[in-house]
From TrEMBL:
InterPro entries from the UniProt entry: DUF2798
Pfam family, one: DUF2798
Keywords: Membrane, Transmembrane, Transmembrane helix
The protein, known as: DUF2798 domain-containing protein
Residues spanning the membrane: 25-46, 58-77, 98-124, 130-155
Source organism, top-level taxon: Bacteria
Length: 165
């Protein structure tokens, strides 16, 4: 009893060159850490200054951003990308990516500024919380805009191809 197994060469090439899941996760964690670390660092500095409490406060803000904001950000980016493809089908992908980057920067900055202010200031004084949110948001916005435009125009397309591999 002989059995013949036929394998398509494309299947062999795909399985042989497929990127392992752990590498995909590491790339995404690295990108997220760079962005969230930088932005929460700026926001924490604006709220507490470079005091003895800075590093502890920054670490709490970073971990909050990493475990709360990152999943929200990845979900929002996916939805926003699909919406932009639907709403602006005749617009070049590079232009859509810039629009997505700008929207994501403002959205994520606002949310990270809130979680950072909540972590560093707390909820006891709503005026102080708002002031902390606003100062963190405005200080980190230029950094976030630059990072998001850079990421959405240069890194995002490469990462999307890498994640699909």
């Amino acid at each position: 009893m002989n059995q013949t197994i036929t394998v398509n060469s494309a299947e062999i090439e795909t399985s042989a060159t497929s990127t392992p899941l752990y590498k995909k996760i590491l790339v995404m964690m690295g990108m997220m850490s760079l962005m969230a670390g930088t932005l929460t660092g700026v926001m924490t500095y604006m709220n507490v200054g470079l005091s003895d409490a800075f590093y502890g406060q920054w670490l709490r803000a970073f971990l909050t951003a990493a475990f709360v904001m990152a999943p929200l950000g990845f979900s929002a980016m996916t939805v926003l990308t699909k919406l932009m493809e639907k709403w602006l089908p005749n617009t070049a992908e590079s232009k859509r990516n810039i629009i997505i980057g700008l929207i994501m920067a403002v959205f994520m900055e606002s949310m990270m500024a809130f979680t950072t202010a909540a972590t560093t200031i707390g909820f006891a004084d709503s005026n102080a919380l708002f002031s902390g949110w606003l100062s963190g948001f405005l200080a980190a916005l230029p950094v976030g805009l630059a990072l998001m435009v850079l990421v959405s125009t240069t890194i995002k397309p490469k990462v999307e191809r890498f994640l699909k591999s």
